[in-house]
Amino acid sequence: MSVTRVRPLVCLFGRGAAVRLCRTVSTWSPVGAAFNAKVQRRLELFQQNVGLFGVPELSSVDGFEVVQDRALQETEQLVEEACRCPAGVQTVQIFDKLSDSLCRVADMADFIKVAHPDPSYREAAEKTCINIGTMVERLNTNVELCKSLKDLLDNKEVMSKLDPETRRVAELFMFDFEISGIHLDTKKRKEAVNLNVKLLDLSNQFLMSCHMPNRIEKKALPEHIHQHFTKDGKYIQIGGLHADAPDDLVREVAYKVFLYPNANVMHILEELLACRDKLARLVGYESYAHRALKGTMAKSPEAVMNFLQQITDKLADRTEKDFKMMRDMKTKLNPQNSELMPWDHPYFSGVTRAERFNIEPSLYSPYFSLGACMEGLNGVFTQLYGVSLLAEQPSVGEVWSEDVRKLAVVHETEGLLGYIYCDFFYRQDKPHQDCHFTIRGGRRLDDGQYQLPMVVLMLNLPHPTRASPTLLSPGMMENLFHEMGHAMHSMLGRTRYQHVTGTRCATDFAEVPSILMEYFATDYRVISQFARHYQTGQPLPQSMVARLCESKKVCGAADTQLQVFYSVLDQVYHGKPQNRSTTDIMIDLQKKYYGLPYVTNTAWQLRFSHLIGYGAKYYSYLMSRAVASMVWKQCFYKDPLNRETGEHYRREMLAHGGGKEPMLMVEGMLQKRPSMEDFVKALVSDLDPDFETFIMDSEA
């Protein structure tokens, strides 16, 4: 269960919704106008509350227990059915129904527990997650249930008659059993269950601690920087790195205070890693990384480390030049304190880009109103796939905040494909991360109909004002395209089974569709179709787009190397136990794979929240970027909005979700199986001023 248009549009505002448009050009399409509008509170008297996501029981907080109990009851019935069922395709269908019954509740609760503004809803959703999680652990160690699946997998005659997707889903379900220790004796199987329960608790504790602020007495800091932080009586609270602050001292203080080691959290992390290692070895793997990488494109920790080492070797000279550029910039701005430190990297790489190419976000944002960007996405999807985004008015009680927008995704011949809920605006107590959540996976139903997928995209954009719609910086626009790539992966997949729907695929493949959208977001042929000034309607000049694209390559080697360092750290933490502290490991790896000095009395790893959802898989961002780069350059670069290429991409890569081995999907798209060297070459070539030679080499 689950941690990526030119045709006319219709905008459905039902039941007399009052919409106040901000001052804007009058030529937006309906979807553009919908997102440049500020929806006012509706009069909701006499209208029935349909419940969150249209689930009637969730019109009140007590409904969580109702939907949870119903799912658990349905699970018991399906388990009995699976155990009685003769080996065949129906075995896999029942297992998928079982998975769907639990996932529809667990995935929805997983989202609500972090996003709902009402604490009582968050608390009820959290309890539901725990109860469903407990049931999943029970199922994964149910010997009789496993036997019904094993009987199918052992029956070569029946297996040979199954379609490839059904065979793969059966094997994936068996993998879930195996990593839970189904093959162990009763005592060890119970130990595996207990370790999984303990890991769930440790993971929640670590995630909560990752974002908790640290505090320091006011008198310990110079008074002139107090204004940059939150005051709490006689203390100053620091809840982040303030990486973009122009004041060197603000960045330094934030880095040292926010990353100051917490002994309790250090213990949680080290216990978490020890439990993961113990569980992996208990169920027969050499390390947790070996277990986590089974079924991925990389396949093994050794291949991942080879990939990361090759990138490091290829980028060594460029990385050093990037750090020199940043060091020179710091010397120019602050001659008395010119040593380049870890808190300087994000700031001075940005300053260097801005100075070299005159990149000032405020010059771009008037051209990137939220409505314009949504119109642009709609245009891309219509031209590539024949898909349109239609804005619909949510029913009463369907959404958790009144500024959430709902999109129907409609294909020109296939009809309605699914729904995207757009939770785009900043809200207090909302996670400050851009995320894609699967709420309901797509699958073929018994009556031949298709269960429509439903997802949420979460961003943290500024609200529109009286004077203007929401205006996006280039980075925000790119993030929007990235997250919409995940959403379309969910929408355009038409897998038979929800267990492999959309983004439920290998982690190092799941980011490919989202990262590929970033290439569309920086191509002038795409941008020119939607980027226009929200007041004058003037298009964004091509020269500004060219400067923006070239600026992204400035300090790109150092930025990539930082991601390599994080990826190596993740691999080593989940490899063979080192019998030394996580901080000592980090100090050594930072020196070898990054280059900027370790700062005494800091523990960045305690803020590395990706260790939970991406344990041993953080490299996935780099590998997915390599694949996306190859797909863009070899397939889309010459004609980015070509319908034939879009259909080929959907057919080969988006349609299968996790129902096909990931490297086979890449091979189908590129017409060859890339090597690790090809991946590295693609990543490095992104930093080159020109990649025409890459294309010619690939075609040769």
Automatic annotation (TrEMBL):
Gene Ontology CC annotations of this record: mitochondrial matrix; mitochondrion
GO BP: peptide metabolic process; protein processing involved in protein targeting to mitochondrion
Gene Ontology molecular function: any one: metalloendopeptidase activity
Pfam families xrefs: Peptidase_M3 (PF01432)
Full protein name: Mitochondrial intermediate peptidase
Organism (species): Danio rerio
Gene designation per UniProt: mipepa
